[in-house]
Amino acid sequence: MTTAANHLDIEARDRIKEIICDILEIEPEEMTDTSRFKEDHEADSMGAIEILSQLERVFGTDIDQAELSRMVNLAAVVTVVEEAIAAQSDPAN
Amino acid sequence: MYDDERAPRRVVITGLGTVTSIGLGVTAFLDGLRSGRSGVKPITAFDTTGFAHANGCEVDDFDPADWIHRTEPAELGRATQFSIAAARMAVEDAGLTPGDLRERKVLISVGTTDAESRDLDLLVGQQLEHGPEQLDHRVVRRAQAGRLSSGIVRELGLVDVEALTIPTACAAGNYAIGSGFDAIRDGDVEAALCGGADAVCRKTFTGFYRLGTIAPEVCQPFDKDRKGILTGEGAGILLMESLDSARARGARIYAEVLGYGLSCDAHHPVAPDQDGLARCIEVAHANAGVKAEDIDFISAHGTGTHANDVTEAGAIRQVFDNPPPTISIKSMIGHSMGAASALASAACALAITEDFIPPTINHRETDPECGLDCVPNEARPARLNVVQNNALAFAGNNAVLILGRYEEAV
């Protein structure tokens, strides 16, 4: 269950954007919440894996590699990171 | 046109040295190939805590002192130890002594992916734990790629020799054998010890793991349920000489090196390019003077990743109207990186000599997208005249080697 408490604050969202822009070698103003990494920013599979591993390091969480298929734009990545953090703090895990 | 002095020489393989996870030495390796032995077990080279799965194909019965007599084994990294051991095996298997080689002009050419990265792992660990001033001097000195070839020179006491380490990653074994073929063919050297060596290390396992390409349990090339590679290790060194030199000393000839092809398409850091590989196969056929229909079986790169196997099968179908049986010994020995295509070349030479095609083990159902006869699970008797050994490496470094049966003219 993802509750409002699991939503990332602005600072964390900016950090995610910074990480992705850095890896894709683009300026932050070129990226919107819905601009697509692959189609709009020329990301390839290596870039996607780099994004995933950097997020794991910065947020101290595990993200399943299967989530890569969902991580197509900034909004989707924020959701995946929120879910990963939520799953980690879920006592059922 | 060549004058008689400069006519290109024919090149043959007369000695094989193999350090593998399914057997040390050519007899054990041959037995493993014929019986479809699996080298897979849990990795012990480093602490695998934190990885969801960590199987590999390590060489676990190797005592360097059995093979290395003139050098202190502790002064050598693990990949160098493998390389030297395989070279000594190859010399003995060819019925030669180090003294015989000292009287000849020799090329040593060893391909590698990681060289002594296992030592680099160790040094990084030491630096993190104790600081750079506490690095183990002996390990620092031995952690050099050049040692993979110069170590052979030192151990065999060679004098008139060139030593190359060729760092073209997972295709490096074939590159090295190709360099030896050229050197003998052109008359630059009289004998060559060529192949590849690598040792399992944390860095490479982690890299492949992070790419999502490590199989949880076994390597299943061309299977519809394949899940990736297993990292392996070892060394394969071939002793090559000119046909005239082999015949003059009455040597046993495993096979003739007919030619090879290289293509560096630089298309992508990790994704193989089908057209680049197809071009490489065509170059190899042209260089060896054979046609696609002459090839009796293909030893594939066949890593067991989704991308490799489907791309490689596509390239083969692009070149061959009717692809011959296409197998992957990585199903048995895992991916031994720079040693991989050298050990596959040794397997091809043995297949020609012993009249069989090695199997692709761990096979349940062929992926229709690959659609090749991969000689599943059981070796197959076959009379082979011409065989092809594929090697692909990251960044589009492809190398394809063609070997042929040598028959005395009647």
Automatic annotation (TrEMBL), chain A:
Domain Carrier positions: 10-85
Superkingdom classification of source: Bacteria
Pfam families (UniProt xref): PP-binding (PF00550)
Gene3D superfamilies noted in UniProt: ACP-like
InterPro entries hit by this protein: ACP-like_sf (IPR036736), PP-bd_ACP (IPR009081)
Protein name: Acyl carrier protein
TrEMBL record, chain B:
Cross-referenced InterPro entries: Beta-ketoacyl_synthase, Ketoacyl_synth_C, Ketoacyl_synth_N, PKS_Beta-ketoAc_synthase_dom, Thiolase-like
Record-stated family: Belongs to the thiolase-like superfamily. Beta-ketoacyl-ACP synthases family.
GO cellular component assignments: cytosol
Keywords on record: Membrane, Transferase, Transmembrane, Transmembrane helix
Gene Ontology MF annotations: 3-oxoacyl-[acyl-carrier-protein] synthase activity
This protein's name: 3-oxoacyl-ACP synthase
GO biological process: fatty acid biosynthetic process
